[in-house]
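Moderator note: this is an archived Q&A kept for reference. The question asked for a predicted structure of one protein chain; the sequence and the answer are reproduced below.
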Amino acid sequence: MLNYLLKSGVDIESELASKKGRIVMEIPFDSKRKRQTTAVRLEGGGVRLFVKGATEAIVVLCSQTLMGGNSEEFTAEMKDTILGPNGILKTFARKCYRCLCVSYRDFTAAEWEALSQANNDFKNFDEINTDELESNLTMTCIFGLMDPLRPGIKDAIE
C-alpha cells in the first residue's frame, strides 16, 4: 500500500506527521476478527473511524459506499458483485491476489463521547461493543495485493 501511495505522489512523511497525536483509539488486527480499527480526531472536533481488513469481514459491516466521490447506499446487489461466486473477491483470488478493504464512519464529538463512555473509554479491547462501533460503515476501496505462492507450497499440495 505504501508503494501505491508513493507512486501516487503522496508525501507519506507529512501525512503521518499530520496524524500524530490525533489517534484516539486503536483495535489492533486480530486474525479472528480479520480487521483493524483506528479512530482519528478530525479538525472540526468529530472522529473518523477507519476499519480495514479482509474484504469478506468488512463488506458486511458497510451500509454505504463511495461512488464517484459521493456516498451511496451499498445495496445487496453491489455486495454480491464483490462477494458473490463470480465476484471481484473470487476473481482476484484466482489471480493470487489477497484483497484488503478500507472503510470509515464519521462520528460527531458528542456521539464519540457517548460511545467512549459506554465502552469504558476504550481501555479494554475485549469489552468494546464492536457491533455498535463498527456498523454503518462506508466502504471506500478494495486493494488487490499480490500474494504469490511461497516456494514449496505447490509441492506440498501435490
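Archived answer notes: The mean pLDDT is 87.
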